[in-house]
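Appendix B, Record 12. Input sequence as logged:
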Amino acid sequence: MGWREERRVAMDALRMAARLCELVRTREAAKPRIKADRSPVTVADFGAQALVCRAIAAAFPGDRMVAEEEASDLDGDEGRALLGRATALVNEVLGTQMGAASSGGTPATRASDVRDWIAWRGGTANTSRCWTLDPIDGTKGFLRGDHYAIALALLEDGEPVLGVLACPALGPQRDGAGRRGALVEAIAGGGTRLHALFPESDRGALDTGVDEYEDEYEDLGGRTMHVASANEPAARRFVESVEGGHGDAARQEAVARAAGIDQPALRLDSQVKYAAVADGRAGLYLRLPNPRTPDYREKIWDHAAGAIVVREAGGCVTDIAGRPLAFGHGARLEHNRGIVAGMPEAHEAAIAALAAEGSETDIAGKDGRAGTARQSSNPVGSDLLSRESGKSTQQAISQSAEAAGHANDRARGRDISHEQGPAGDRG
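Logged structural output:
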């Protein structure tokens, strides 16, 4: 299995970034600035991006980086004040990480260094590799003390091969129990695993306001995650965004019902939704296009890490037409609309329901090919009045389902081996 060094660097970087974010949350009221796109940004966004880009630049200087925040937002008097606060936080986290908090042996990082790290977009030595970063996915959740994620993915030739999500408010158990703080990571061909975000060895080194606890999964390298089975109660629950403007809530509910979902929606901020599906806490994630913004295209940093996390846990991830997400066309998913992610049965039923209502004809390309639904025999799905399937959609569904099957086999195989050990069961 490749990408081990990339995995280590990414996990370490996101743990540091999460410490910085939690410092901000517990010490100060993080007052956001409103960017040109009307989205909020805080000192924690900039500090987290600086720490992650610093780590990636040092380890893989030839790789490219596509990150959400722009250093130009730190210009002007207000921006320079924000940069100063971010620099102080970066110094504190790096000082604690290096043991300099007590020894005083590490020189302080300058504001110009922090700005350069935020602005770093990589080299040109390896154009086939690109990292994508959202330093705080779900800023509104972060601001109100709820779920958010730090999301980092590595793309090779436009395909996610590594994804890491730091989820400081997510409980480690499938039922949400346990001390908050989960680190979810997935490697192509290697499955998806959940780790404690702050292991006991460094818990309490920073005043994050989170109690110490033992990382029961650390010795086994994390707990294997896989999507729900069709007969589990969670299979009948879907997850969607807290913010109504991020999708079409009424349509999402209707599609979920058509797919056999009969439990109230679980509303979460950020790519924590992907983690919930990957860990079998919900069977389906729907993010259908908002009719008020028909030309909107999703940003790659909002989905790349989550997509591989679900895929490697045995799930399927496509757009609303059943097409794989195409991450190799710039900072946005220019060739996709909407997101459907879930356990294979629920995903197939949702795609069939969308095709039956004519969703694909709304987004058909210039060739005019639009897929239609096929009869579903899902135990999750309800009876659907369906038509003959279109080739492009069904090929995508079949390919996604085949990949999910391989991931499920890997995940369940590892579960068996871990159940023989002293720890690391699914919980």
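Confidence is low (pLDDT under 50) at residues 201-220, 359-401, 410-427.
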